[in-house]
Amino acid sequence: MGGRRGIFVTLEGGEGSGKTTQSRRIVQYLRARGREVLETREPGGTDAGEMIRDILLHRVASLSPRAELALYLASRSQLVQEIVRPNLEKGVDVICDRYADSSTAYQGGGRELGIELVEDLNDWATAGLEPDLTFYFEVAASTGLTRREARSGGEDLDRIEREDLDFHERVGRAYREIAARHAHRFRVVSTEGGEEAVWERVQRELDERLVAKEKEAHS
Predict the structure, then answer these.
(1) Global pTM?
(2) Which one of 104, 178, 205, 211 has the largest count of C-beta atoms within 10 Å of its C-beta?
(3) Under CATH, to which class is 8-217 assigned?
């Protein structure tokens, strides 16, 4: 791999934002360009992380906000140490469906623990590993929840998805604040116009970041 570090791309958004679909398209696009790519997700991505994911989303009916955050941080820390950082150092691109910004939005904003507090804890849990590029797929909370329920028939919603509209609106407001705080890596993507239109916006931003990364590598 010539010593090239991989790029770390994360995807963020509320429920029903379509980010998982775009994550798959990013992986396919990068592989078609001859790049080695690893796709992962949060919470999860490791044996320990997948067990924590099951607890967080399906196994228990309720958790205190601090306990919930602690579990997300544990899963994230393991993912970074076991999967993300080693692969980036080998030159593999890592595409992660959710990362630290999700906790900042959902626990910092939605659970009202505080954006700055959660960002500090994320920094500790990840040993400061920040994405090169973060796509935030913006959709109104009411619209996203309606989409999600329509796809599942209301039967497959997890514990977070079942939270009320006020919670998800707080999450959306937190995401907008996070995007402003980290404008150097955040790209806010409109979800209007269907999957292809969204992909065109993503691809344009991704190409721009790849060009910048290549220039950095040769500077």
Answers:
(1) 0.93
(2) 104
(3) alpha beta
Domain ranges of the chain: 8-217
The torsion angles phi and psi of 218, rounded to 5 degrees, stand at -105, 5
pLDDT in tens, the chain (219 residues): 447 899 999 999 998 889 999 999 999 999 999 999 999 999 999 999 999 999 999 999 899 999 999 999 999 999 999 999 999 999 999 999 999 999 999 999 999 999 999 999 999 999 999 999 999 999 998 888 888 777 766 567 899 999 999 999 999 999 999 999 999 999 999 999 999 999 999 999 999 999 888 777 776
User: Rounded to an integer, what distance in angstroms lies between the CA atom of residue 67 and that of residue 57?
Assistant: 13
136 forms bridges with which residues in the sheet? 12, 188
| DSSP state letter for 186 | E
CB 39 within 8 A of CB 95: yes
H or E segment at 169? helix 165-181
Q: Would you report the helix, strand and coil content of the chain in percent, each value rounded to 5?
A: 60, 10, 30
Q: Tell me if 91 sits within 8 A of 3, measured CB to CB.
A: yes
Q: What is the largest CA-CA distance in the chain?
A: 53
Question: CB 152: neighbour CB atoms within 10 A?
Answer: 12
Instruction: Provide the phi-psi class of 93: left if phi over 0, else alpha when psi is between -120 and 50, else beta.
Output: beta
Q: What angle do CA 72, 185, 81 make, to 5 degrees?
A: 40
